[in-house]
Amino acid sequence: MIILIFLVIIPLFSQTPVRIMGGEIDYLFNERLTSAEILALRRGEVVCNSIGKLKYSRINDIPEARQLISAVKRVNPNHLAEIIKILPYQKYEKLTDIVSAMLKDEESYTKVPFYIDDDEEIVYLYADAKIQNIEKIGGKEIITERFLMKPLDYFTGRIESVKFGTYYFYQMQNLNRVRYKTFLSAVGKGKMIAVISIFRYGDNWIIYALGGVDIIKLPFIDKRIDRAFYNRIKAFCLFTFEKLEESVSEDEES
User: Smallest Cα–Cα separation from 85: which of 40, 121, 32, 119?
Assistant: First the structure.
């Protein structure tokens, strides 16, 4: 199946415009970032694309993104979604602390609805999520968690995160094969990945994320999983940034 590359600019309930110079944009992103997307980012919107392959990503090979790029290269997914958002550093000084706490609360994702398919069947980001183990190795935190992600079956995920200074990196990867309706192997071990890099650049925070999966080609489910996966990324995006805005508002009130 040829994966169409399409654009979704997601308006949030609360948007914070940013000032970022053309030279800064050129350092961070390549020519695939369109003029419309640049305007959307400056308005404080989220830019989300289904890009199919890593070679179609908009991020440049900069030091701040190399950990993320290397992780995705190792998986080499055939379905890949890209999320970009820019926030001003001022007002969001505690951004990495807030996001770190949010992303560790995987069980809250069981409350996030999204459309699984064009027939508007609603499911949740995860039907079930339970932490099995948490350990810290140096500056890295590792969480092992069991997930149910419909229309796929249960799988175990390894979540790694590291935070130092104004840099934060998050990675989730499956530790076992993921089956479709318990009997068909749809995703191989280590072939599903979500990565997020957050770093300060100038007067702004850059939030860049990739979510990908290397799905075994099964003609009768491939398109459905592709749509479900992309809709899942959009739901995750909306949920994360809405929670971020709520956390910042609560800090301002206290």
Answer: 40
